[in-house]
Fold this sequence. Notes:
4-stranded mixed sheet, 33% helix
Amino acid sequence: MGDDCAILRPDAGLELAVTTDMLVEGRHFSPGAEPRALGHKALAVNLSDLAALGAAPRWALLALGLPAADERWLEGFSAGFFALAERYGVELVGGDTTRSSVLTLTVVAMGEVPASVALYRSAARPGDDVWVSGELGGAALALQRPDIAAVQKRLHEPEPRIELGERLRGLARAAIDLSDGLAGDLGHVAARSQVAVVLAYERIPRAAAFKTVGDAQLERRCVLSGGDDYELAFTAAPERRAELEALSRELGLPLARIGAIEAGAPGVTVRDARGEVVAHEGGFDHFREPR
Amino acid sequence: MGDDCAILRPDAGLELAVTTDMLVEGRHFSPGAEPRALGHKALAVNLSDLAALGAAPRWALLALGLPAADERWLEGFSAGFFALAERYGVELVGGDTTRSSVLTLTVVAMGEVPASVALYRSAARPGDDVWVSGELGGAALALQRPDIAAVQKRLHEPEPRIELGERLRGLARAAIDLSDGLAGDLGHVAARSQVAVVLAYERIPRAAAFKTVGDAQLERRCVLSGGDDYELAFTAAPERRAELEALSRELGLPLARIGAIEAGAPGVTVRDARGEVVAHEGGFDHFREPR
C-alpha cells in the first residue's frame, strides 16, 4: 500500500475470522530448513485454523525476524508462501521485516465466513459422529524417521483443508484442525462442548508407511498424539452421513467416521476392536518438548 | 475464544485498517527493558499507524516469542499492554506464545474507518500547509542521553495520537505518524504524493530539554531525523487553519504549522529563518543502524 496500514473491505453480512501463528527456528523447524517449504508451512498452519472454522481465506500479514538479509533464502521462502497464497486467493496486505538473531515467522491470516455459520469447538452434541479427513500420523512419523521419504511432505508441506472447511458449513457441528494431535485436539472439543469423545482406534485412517515400519507403539503415538497433520476433525449428526460421503467423493478427500460424541465427563477415550482402552498421551505437548 | 480464530464483526459501511509491527530485543529495545513500558510501546506503535490513517482502533493480536516463562515479566508486560488497550477500547482477540531464544513482540492492530475517509500518504497537494502535533526530538534525545529524565517517557512510552487521527478525517489530506523521523517520514508523503515538502526549521516544535542541552547539531539531528516520537504530521488546505487551531485547543494538544507543500520534485527541504537550507540525514535509517 505504501501506507503502514492496509485497508480491507469485508463483504457485507460476512464475519471476519482472524488467526495468528508464530514459527521459531529451533522450536518449530530446524536451522537450515528448506525455505520454500517454510514459506508454505508458515501460511498453511494459519490457513488450517481458518479451515477449521469454515472461513474462506482472503488476506494475510507476515512479520519476519531475519538473522541476515539472504536474497536466496527470501526468494525460496516467498516462492513457497505465494504459491499457496495464490492457490487460495489470499492477498498479502502488510507486514514487517526486522533483524533478529533467531529466525522467526509470524503470519496472520484473515478470512470471511457468513454470519453465524462458523464451526466452533463448542458445538459438538451427544449422538454426533466424529469424522476426520485424510490420514493421520504421517507428520509425526516424518519427524521421528527422517529416512522415510514418503511422509516427509506431510511434515514440511502440510495441506490446509480449506475447501473441506468451507463445505462443512451447515453440515458439520464442531470442527478443529489437527495441529497438536488427534487426542489432544479432540480434547479441546470435549472440554469446550462439555461432552465425551469416544474413538475406535482401528477406524482412524493412518499413513500407509506405518505398515512397513511395523512398530505398533510408535504408530499409536503418532496416530493419537502426533501433531502437525493439519487434517480436520469434526462432528456431525448421523443423518448427515450420506452427504458427507458424497462430499468426500466430490473433493477426492477421504473422510472417515472414527467415533461418536457421548454425554459424560469431558475427555477423549480410545478403544480397540476388542473394546479395550488404548492409552494415549494427549496431544503434542506431551509427546515432544512443550512449545 | 477457545477457538484458534477470533471472529470479528466490523460495523457495516466501515473499512478495516490493519497494521503490524514487530519489536525485537537488541534492535528495538535493550535487554532488560522495563516490561510495563514494553507492553505499552508494542501496542502504541501499532495504534500510531492506525491514528495516521484516521482509523478508530478496535482489535489487537499479540504474538510473543519468549526466552523463558517469567511470570513477573509477563505481569508487567500485560499491565502496560492492557492499560493502553483499555484506554482506547481495544480488545485482544488472539495471539500465539512460543519459546524463542530472543524476545520478540509482534502486535497486529485493527481499526475501523468510514469508507473512503481514510488519510493517505498519497493525498498531499501543492498549496497545503504541513502540520505536526506535539513536540519532536524527545525520543531520539532520550536514546542519546539516558541521563535526561524529562524525555525518557517519550522514548519508552510514546502516546499514539488516536483522537487526533480520528478528528482529522475530512479535515486533513495526507497524514503519517513519525516513527522514523520527520524528514524521512515526510519524504514518504512527498514520494507517494509526488510533491515537494518545504519546512521552516525554526517553526518545528521540539522538546524543551534541548534548551538546556545546548547542542545545536544534536538538536537538529534529533528534531529532523530522530525516530520514535509517534506524533502525527499531516497536510491540510490553508482554509482549514482556524478549524485546526480550534481542534488543537479542544484536544489540549499543540498543532504547529511548520511548512507547505509545493509542486516540484518529490523531496523534503528544510530552511532556517534566513532561508538557508538545513542539511538533514533523512530518517531513522540513516541516523542509527538500519532496522
